[in-house]
UniProtKB/TrEMBL annotation:
<comment type="similarity">
    <text>Belongs to the 3-oxoacid CoA-transferase subunit B family.</text>
</comment>
<dbReference type="InterPro" id="IPR037171">
    <property type="entry name" value="NagB/RpiA_transferase-like"/>
</dbReference>
<dbReference type="InterPro" id="IPR012791">
    <property type="entry name" value="3-oxoacid_CoA-transf_B"/>
</dbReference>
<dbReference type="GO" id="GO:0008410">
    <property type="term" value="F:CoA-transferase activity"/>
</dbReference>
<dbReference type="InterPro" id="IPR004164">
    <property type="entry name" value="CoA_transf_AS"/>
</dbReference>
<protein>
    <submittedName>
        <fullName>Acetate CoA-transferase</fullName>
    </submittedName>
</protein>
<keyword id="KW-0808">Transferase</keyword>
<dbReference type="InterPro" id="IPR004165">
    <property type="entry name" value="CoA_trans_fam_I"/>
</dbReference>
<dbReference type="Pfam" id="PF01144">
    <property type="entry name" value="CoA_trans"/>
</dbReference>
Length: 220
């Protein structure tokens, strides 16, 4: 299991029976492959699917079945298909239990930037803003640093903000943070990661959760 798969598997542990879950582009799409067998959730895609299944292998790809990121998907028995307007009505109507999103940056308040890089051409914010505003819970899955080794958890966003709505949980390859009224709270270290490494690679200030033991791996 590589680090991105580890992040996805950790995020899957946050899902509960009956959740309607939207998976964003990137690491979030991997979550579909790690949902526990004893947990039944309904995966939603903005392009009009409810009932997305695990990622297909090469022999079972159907070019007509893709998610909002245009990646091949499978569908489970009982799944449904609908137009984009109906899909966004579900989101805006508060019917999505959990959204799992990738990000470019997260700030010290738990607000994210995930749709535009200054100076680069982009198509627009897509469904990210709607998912942040309409979902009951939002989880971020991301690498802790970018390709230049810079922290993606920053004091202030330097990329365009997606929404003023704060996310609820941040899961990286190094740690897990809960987002509370007073900022970020470190609640868990990834296996083999030290507190000092997280401290060194996190630009934003953060609190230590009461359940956290420095230097030891803990679970939320």
């Amino acid at each position: 299991m590589n680090v991105k798969q580890y992040i996805a598997a950790r995020a899957a542990k946050e899902l509960k029976d009956g959740d309607i879950v939207n998976l964003g582009i990137g690491i979030p799409t991997l979550v579909a492959d790690y949902i526990p067998s004893d947990v039944k959730v309904f995966l939603h895609s903005e392009n009009g699917i409810l009932g997305v299944g695990p990622t297909p292998d090469l022999e079972h790809i159907d070019q007509n079945l893709v998610n909002a990121g245009k990646m091949p998907v499978t569908v489970l028995e009982g799944s449904s298909f609908f137009d984009s307007a109906s899909s966004f009505a579900m989101i805006r109507g508060g019917h999505v239990s959990v959204s799992i999103l990738g990000v470019l940056q997260i700030d010290a308040k738990g607000r994210i930037a995930n749709w535009a890089v200054p100076g680069k051409s982009v198509l627009g914010v897509g469904g990210a803003m709607d998912l942040l505003e309409g979902s009951k819970k939002v989880i971020v899955t991301t690498m802790h640093t970018n390709s230049q080794g810079e922290s993606k958890i920053v004091k202030e966003l330097t990329y365009p903000i997606t929404s003023e709505r704060k996310v609820d949980l941040i899961i990286t390859d190094l740690a897990v943070f809960a987002v509370k009224k007073d900022g970020l709270h470190l609640i868990e270290l990834s296996p083999g990661v030290s507190f000092e490494e997280v401290q060194q690679k996190t630009d934003a200030p953060f609190h230590i959760a009461e359940s956290f033991n420095k230097g030891k791996e803990v679970t939320a």
